[in-house]
């Protein structure tokens, strides 16, 4: 008897939406890591259940060698705008949707990543590698702990198979959990192939699965679109607040329900730099940090175009105009929290902009600065400690004076403010050099203990973790040589 019971509502949409096929299992698979926090989402929370994951019974489907009862394994079809150009047929080239498993907080899509060739693999082998699965496994958990809407990762399994990338690498498989795997590009595919009934069918599926309150409403398609636009605006505001760059904001990587998905060449900023480009493949800087908000709106425009058979264009345009004000409002609210400002004031945006310009001009580590600011006390030596970070100290001191004046109108005491600020300004983020350390140990030494250590750290990034203090410091010089690209 299987521990989990599966269904696959997406499979009921019909063959035009996917290709049915079974995964190509890993050869002699073994567990690299199991995420107990994600397992609990599926109701796997007791010690006995966790051990069951490691048993042959469940490791079979985590490694693609068996299928769980009730699953209906399929590769989803979609298209998308990649780096601004339209690619008419993409789809799951190395992943399969097994179906949905019900847990204590509702249904979760269960998806294998690295499960072998599909009709959408093009020239690829359909495999993931240990390097990329470790990156997604740890980063999706880090993002969740930072309060950012995201897919989750249940497990990594590896096998004896070697696959060729820039060099030979060990094949691996990630089990990804998501509320939905439907993308902006899913709608684009059916719109651009003029399969209008499929656009409608897909919209009804999304509404039934994620917006049941809209069922039967005359404006349900418009309201579904509004929800996608609003969720996207809020999602990207959260990205900006924690210094995260996605790297490949193609429309096929944009979730219809506003989850961060498809972790590839992502990166958290070290020194604050609006022009930060985390993806070595992005030679034009289309997806640089400062452009993410505008690209989010661009992608929403592409989704709007794909829904013109369901909603009048003028109504879609009205909703699109709601994106920018909501993004600005959300980001301003997040920055107020980072600065310990509880009561909104008209000049807050100016204060924030001046600070970000100082951080940029002085090449200050974004995360470290905000964390130190949490515990600033003008009666102690904290100002000197902060001041020492800056080259242009006079300008920083001037900003600090303005900040102190702004804090003086707050009713929260310094101790309470420090606690609140420390709950939104992480001490630890998942920097690329940390990923490299975990990957090197795993690949070179078959040592997976650093994954365990980092997972614990990243799942509680606001805590102190004295045994991991080195990861709260400025990154080592060699980290600047790390290059991540679309193959990551």
Task: Give short descriptive properties of this protein.
single chain, alpha+beta, two-stranded antiparallel sheet, 41% helix, 14% strand
Helices, strands, pairings?
Blueprint: E1 6-7, E2 18-20, E3 30-34, H1 36-41, H2 47-54, H3 56-62, E4 74-76, E5 80-82, E6 85-87, E7 95-103, E8 106-113, E9 128-129, H4 130-145, E10 152-164, E11 168-178, H5 184-192, H6 196-210, H7 220-242, E12 244-245, E13 267-268, H8 292-306, H9 313-320, H10 323-339, H11 348-361, H12 366-374, H13 382-387, H14 393-407, H15 414-422, H16 432-445, H17 449-458
What does this molecule look like?
The protein is an alpha+beta fold and about 500 residues long. Among the domains are: about 170 residues, no CATH class; about 70 residues, no CATH class. Strands 1, 3, 7, 8, 9, 10 and 11 form a seven-stranded antiparallel beta sheet that branches. Strands 2-4 form a two-stranded antiparallel ribbon. Strands 5-6 form a two-stranded antiparallel sheet.
